Amino acid sequence: MKIGDKYKIKIIDEDNIGNGIAKIDNFVIFIKSALKDEEIEIEIIKINKHYAVGKILNIIFKSNKRIDVECKYYDICGGCNFLHTTYSNEINNKINYLEKLFNTKINYLINNNELYYRNKVTFHVLNGKLGYFNDKTHNLCEIDYCYLLNPKINLKLNEIKKYNLDNINEIMIRCISDKIMINISANNENIDLKNIDCDCLYINNKYIKGEEYLVDTIDNIKYSIYPNSFYQVNNEVMKLIYDKAKSYIGFGDTLLDLYCGTGTIGIYLKDNFKHITGLEINSTSIENANINLKLNNINNIEFINDDAKNIKGSYDAIIVDPPRSGLSNDVIEYLNNSNSNKIVYISCNPNTLKRDIDKLDNYILDDISAASMFPRTKHIECVCKLVIKGE
Ligand SMILES: C[S@@+](CC[C@H](N)C(=O)[O-])C[C@H]1O[C@@H](n2cnc3c(N)ncnc32)[C@H](O)[C@@H]1O
Question: Which terminus of the chain is more exposed, N or C, with fewer CB under 10 A?
Answer without folding.
Answer: C
